[in-house]
């Protein structure tokens, strides 16, 4: 447990809870939780499934129509062919997909290359008995994985490389050229690749999404992970999935029998409807408007800057002038103004002097947060 710390997000979250119980109006820009209702047709599908009595355990792999829908989606949108009967597993959120992949495929004592900064791949690697080893993302290139850093971090004990694009917490999107170089690196070092693509549908400007597994050189070694939480505002439904060649899925499903067995059945039926729809599009348009506003407001504050996020709904700016310590800045601001962000170091050493803004909240609330921040400064 020494290697499984409490997350810094939880510190901020609990402080928000205390403030709200004391009657304060907290502006939440700390959590990666879209503020929209889940689109109505998705809820309707769950209600229909309940009325039809779909309330039981499902196959460990998930219900057949959802697995088929996922395989069709991965073929049509990502150019990857998986067999829905043996190569697709529906999970209880993408979080479980990452956990069971690590538990099944990372041998105790082996190393896992994780981006710095990053979402919670470090503690999950530790839970599986592995050793997380950070590699650098380069702010000057919009947070592309840095090849020199990858080469310096890899060793003969490295088993798996984690890629996350679009990226939490920076909004970076891996370019096609950089993915070419990473593919060579993964093959040369005989690494498995875990590709977390949960923000795939939330991208801006002309940034394309490239799935590593669509490359012949990577298909056999890649576990593609995705989910419904972010694109469809379904964080509470706990629905995600992984897809990989059957040789990799077999051990994962063996582990999976002993974690959550299957994803919630009503959520699985709702997921079938989500995949059939373009229901995420208005939400992505709203995120794009919010991103513009966040960037404008960041620009107006001395000391704060960040590359324009290419995807996801996070900005990762430097702290305002005169507040170099991000932990102190975030906690004082929260105590004094009830505006909640997350200190960058929560996501790794590279977060020193930065903090994360989650613009999964309305334009009004974003403006409210920045107005309070400017007054406070
Ligand atoms: N992967 C990344 C990069 C995330 O940021 C998150 C949630 O914040 C998840 C996975 C977890 O998603 P889920 O709700 O599907 O478990």
From TrEMBL:
An MF annotation (GO) of this entry: transaminase activity
Keyword Protein biosynthesis assigned: no
Record bears the keyword Cytoplasm: no
Native organism: Halococcus salifodinae DSM 8989
Quaternary data: Homodimer.
Protein name stated in the entry: Aminotransferase
Gene3D superfamilies given in the database record: Aspartate Aminotransferase, domain 1, Type I PLP-dependent aspartate aminotransferase-like (Major domain)
Protein's GO biological process: amino acid metabolic process
Family, as annotated: Belongs to the class-I pyridoxal-phosphate-dependent aminotransferase family.
Cofactor(s) needed by this chain: pyridoxal 5'-phosphate
Keywords: Aminotransferase, Pyridoxal phosphate, Transferase
Record EC number: 2.6.1.-
Domain Aminotransferase class I/classII large per the UniProt entry, residue ranges: 25-373
């Amino acid at each position: 447990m020494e290697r499984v710390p409490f997350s810094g997000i939880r510190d901020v979250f609990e402080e928000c809870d205390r403030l709200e119980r004391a009657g304060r109006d907290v502006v939440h820009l700390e959590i990666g939780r879209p503020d929209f209702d889940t689109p109505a047709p998705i809820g309707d599908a769950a209600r229909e499934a309940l009325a039809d009595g779909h309330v039981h355990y499902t196959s460990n792999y998930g219900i057949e129509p959802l697995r088929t829908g996922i395989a069709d989606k991965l073929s049509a949108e990502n150019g990857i062919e998986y067999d829905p009967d043996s190569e697709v597993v529906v999970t209880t959120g993408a979080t479980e997909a990452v956990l069971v992949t690590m538990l099944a495929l990372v041998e105790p004592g082996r190393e896992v290359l994780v981006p710095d900064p990053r979402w919670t791949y470090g503690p999950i690697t530790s839970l599986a008995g592995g050793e997380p080893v950070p590699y650098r993302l380069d702010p000057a290139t919009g947070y592309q994985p840095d090849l020199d850093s990858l080469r310096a971090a890899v060793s003969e004990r490295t088993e798996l490389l984690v890629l996350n694009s679009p990226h939490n917490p920076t909004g970076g999107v891996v370019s096609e050229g950089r993915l070419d170089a990473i593919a060579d690196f993964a093959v040369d070092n005989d690494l498995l690749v875990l590709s977390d693509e949960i923000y795939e549908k939330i991208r801006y400007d002309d940034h394309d999404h490239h799935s590593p597994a669509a490359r012949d050189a990577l298909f056999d070694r890649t576990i593609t992970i995705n989910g419904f939480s972010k694109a469809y505002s379904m964080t509470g439904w706990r629905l995600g999935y992984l897809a990989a060649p059957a040789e990799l899925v077999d051990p994962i499903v063996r582990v999976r029998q002993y974690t959550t067995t299957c994803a919630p059945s009503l959520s699985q039926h709702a997921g079938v409807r989500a995949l059939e729809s373009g229901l995420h599009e208005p939400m992505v348009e709203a995120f794009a408007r919010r991103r513009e506003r966040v960037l404008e407001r960041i620009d107006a504050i001395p000391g704060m800057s960040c590359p324009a996020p290419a995807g996801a709904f996070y900005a990762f700016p430097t702290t305002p002038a005169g507040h170099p310590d991000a932990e102190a800045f975030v906690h004082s601001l929260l105590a004094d103004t009830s505006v909640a962000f997350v200190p960058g170091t929560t996501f790794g050493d590279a977060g020193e002097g930065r903090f994360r803004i989650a613009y999964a909240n309305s334009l009004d609330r974003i403006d409210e947060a920045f107005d309070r921040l400017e007054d406070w400064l």
